[in-house]
Amino acid sequence: MAKIEKFEDLDCWKAARELVNLVYDLCEKEKLSKDWDTVRQIKRASISSMNNIAGLARFSEKEFVRFLDIAQASSVEVRSMSYILLDRKYISEKEFEVLQERAMKTGNLSSGMIRYIVKKRGIGFKLWFAIFVNASWLLSALTQPHVNT
Fold it and tell me: Which burial class, exposed, middle or buried, applies to 13 when counting CB atoms under 10 A from its CB (0-12, 13-18, 19+)?
């Protein structure tokens, strides 16, 4: 993998940007544009995916993995919300399929970046688990011998 110097170089960020633009385009549809709560939520989920990937510029690799996980979860939220859009007939079946595909692509690329970082760093399972439950105490608890009192 080539050296990444800025978040704009990441394929997962590029995919998230495409997802955000698609969501914004769909939210301009007349019927959907009137459902403000749904519009705000799906926009925020897509933006969250893009902005958390941009965390590369601000944090260590360990923190970046956490932000990539949030980005992946946000793309799943967009996928889930796309069912609301379809069920309420805000979007067509074709638009639904495109939205699903873009959200899955964003999530898959984010997950792939996580796997790459973990493999590159040689992170063991205990540390990997600690990162994803965001509990540093878990790592120390798992690596310290148990003392009966």
Answer: buried
Count the domains in the chain: 1
Domain region containing 67: 7-143
43 burial type by CB count under 10 A (0-12 exposed, 13-18 middle, 19+ buried): middle
Report if residue 110 sits inside a domain. yes
Write the pLDDT tens digit of every residue in 67-102.
Answer: 999 999 999 999 999 999 999 999 999 999 999 999
Q: pLDDT of 6-53, one tens digit each? A: 889 999 999 999 999 999 999 999 999 999 999 999 999 999 999 999
Report the predicted TM-score, pTM, of the whole model to 2 decimal places.
0.80
Encoded tokens for 50: 């893009």
How far, in Å, CA of 113 to CA of 117, rounded? Answer: 6
Cβ atoms of 96 and 86 closer than 8 Å: yes
33 in a domain, yes or no?
yes
What's the distance, CA 48 to chain centroid? 7
Work out the end-to-end distance of the chain between its first and last CA atoms, rounded to an integer number of angstroms. 50
Is the distance from CB of 13 to CB of 72 less than 8 angstroms? no
Whether residue 2 is contained in a domain is answered as: no
